[in-house]
Amino acid sequence: MKHIFNFKNIGLVAFFGSNLLFSACLRLDSNLYNTSDKISEYKWDNYTGIQDFKLDASYQIQDSMQAVFRLQSKTSDNQSVKIYATYLGDMAQIATDTVILYCHGNKWHMDFYWQRAKLLAHVGQKHRYGVLMLDYQGYGLSEGKPSEEGLYNDVDAAMQWLKSKGLSNERLIIYGFSMGSAPSCELAANPRSMRVQKVILEAPFASAAVMVADGSGLALPASFVTNLKIDNAEEIKKVNQPLCWIHGTNDDFLNILTHGEVVYKNHTGSFKIAHRVQGADHSNVPISLGFENYRQLLLNFITH
After folding, report:
1. Among candidate residues 297, 285, 296, the one with its CA nearest the CA of residue 250
2. Which tens digit of pLDDT belongs to each residue from 83-119?
3. DSSP letter assigned to residue 87
4. Measured distance between the N- and C-terminal CA atoms of the chain, rounded to whole angstroms
5. How far, in Å, CA of 188 to CA of 238, rounded?
6. How far is CA 243 from the centre of its chain?
7. DSSP conformational letter for 94
8. According to DSSP H, which parts of 140-180 are helical?
9. Is 136 within 8 Å of 142 (Cβ atoms)?
10. d(Cα 73, Cα 90) in Å, to the nearest integer?
11. How far apart are CA 210 and CA 207, in angstroms?
């Protein structure tokens, strides 16, 4: 299983319609990551860039309940690299808390996803669950260059850190949004440092072949445009942990029928639940559901 194409953000739909037919050697691997919004610091609530939504003051996180730090990860060629992460909650309580490890999408950096992390920190009640979010290699202030193996190494580095703080497998929840569904499925199916207890996937993708077909309208093999093979639909077959799947019915980036439904169908674990959010697109599922409803469905799943 590998990476996600961002046809919407890099304008490949039109490109496929003309240029692709003329170049069998075209490679798109280097364009699969959207790190274009360069930053010199994380601004969190003071971030003024585009965001999918912004929460009101009732969702504020006290400074004492947020930590920003660096983790040591490995590049695809096994070189050490530092990546940035943030933890929402009481770090002294990690050994006894349940933690949601949030794997964000392919766009920009943690500031863009900060509102989503705050929302997760209010599931059930404020700071009932710890939330750990990270920037992959090449994202935000994290060192290195994005790569498939680096992506998995980064999320595993986060798990290593949680384990060092005393977190046990039965209290680790992984949440993958869009591209974040790749490390979520990969590390749930093939555990490294920890074995996650439950899996939440929001707008997951299925495979490289489906992405190429959806983006180009042509029946092209995935290998025609990328060396990377996206295979969440296969990896999920090895995931026995409970699954919560959330997907907007009007997702124009990762079609619910060709991506999400396939991933959900292929999960054969002990328990799974689907939330098809009527009218929602790729970026506004929490808004379409309503923040309280969104928090409640996650709480119901985590406590099931």
Report:
1. 285
2. 999 999 999 999 999 999 999 999 999 999 999 999 9
3. E
4. 29
5. 8
6. 15
7. T
8. 148-164
9. yes
10. 23
11. 5
Region 7-37+82-302: CATH code = 3.40.50.1820
Report yes or no: 274 and 265 within 8 Å, Cβ to Cβ: no
Tell me the whole-structure pTM to 2 decimals. Answer: 0.88
CB 181 within 8 A of CB 232: yes
Scored b (16 or more CB within 10 A) or e, 179-215 reads: bbbbbbbbbbbeeebbbbbbbbbbbbbbbbbbbbbbb
Q: Which residue has the tokens 């730090």?
A: 69
Place of tokens 């319609």: 17
- For residue 25, what pLDDT band results from cuts at 50, 70 and 90? very low
Give residue limits of the domains in the chain: 7-37+82-302
Q: CB–CB of 273/245 below 8 Å?
A: yes
| Residue 220 C-beta-side C-alpha neighbours within 13 Å | 21
